[in-house]
Amino acid sequence: MSAVSEKEPVGVADPAQAPEGQAPTPLAEPATTAPAPATDTPPNDDTTNKLAPQQQQEQPLTADSVPTDAKREADLQSAERDKETVEEFQYLLEKSQHLFSGLSDLPEIGSKYWQPHFQRTFEVYTKLWKFQNQHRLLLENPVHYGLKRWEVGEIASKIGQLYYRYYLRTSETNYLHEAFVFYDAIRERNYFRGELSMKNSALMIKKL
């Protein structure tokens, strides 16, 4: 029996390369730990840092008070990396959605026609899931992207549907079981909790 825990491997197994009789390992959302707030608060004492007007004028400029070219360059490089990360996530997300929508157009028979498409779809969702896993804190930051929890649930839902559609093509019940494990995990982790206020019928159905 497959078990879903917070320490499950992060990746979508390719069903075309899975051992016979064994389903690809499902994914699970990793635990994310927010940084602890600082506890060292400077004393609120006006007398500790007061200087006479003449003393204040005589305070020399330090390296910390004047941004250096190296620091500005480092900040620019960091901002550029963050931008590239968001663009890569958007590219993988759009590509996965395009491949997933094409599953309905595949012929019902002839594995040499539909199996390669399923394989590519699984590969893209593998990259997408790992990528959002690795850069979750950045992507959740509203300044950069503002990834919502229900959007992570949407990706997990698509992976569960991939397992189910693959079961329909192959009649292998182990893939049906993996689809159940995925949806059970989505429900247990409440990916779509708190979406009652959103006027989105698709999300409301997923919440139910």
Could you please describe the fold and organization of this structure?
With 208 residues, this protein is mainly alpha-helical. It is built from seven helices and no strands. It has helices at 53-57, 69-101, 111-134, 136-140, 149-170, 173-188, 201-207. α2 runs antiparallel to α3 (111-134), α3 (111-134) packs antiparallel against α5 and α5 runs antiparallel to α6 (173-188). Mean pLDDT is 74; it is low at 1-11, 30-56 and 204-208.
How would you concisely characterize the structure shown here?
The protein has helices at residues 53-57, 69-101, 111-134, 136-140, 149-170, 173-188, 201-207.
Helix content: 40-55%
Task: Supply the helix-strand structural class.
Answer: mainly alpha
Shape: elongated
Mind telling me the C-alpha Rg? 25 Å
How many β-strand runs? 0
Low-confidence stretches: 1-11, 30-56, 204-208
Draw up the topology in text.
Blueprint lengths: L52 H5 L11 H33 L9 H24 L1 H5 L8 H22 L2 H16 L12 H7 L1
Task: Tag the structure with descriptive keywords.
7 helices, disordered C terminus, elongated, single chain, disordered N terminus, mainly alpha
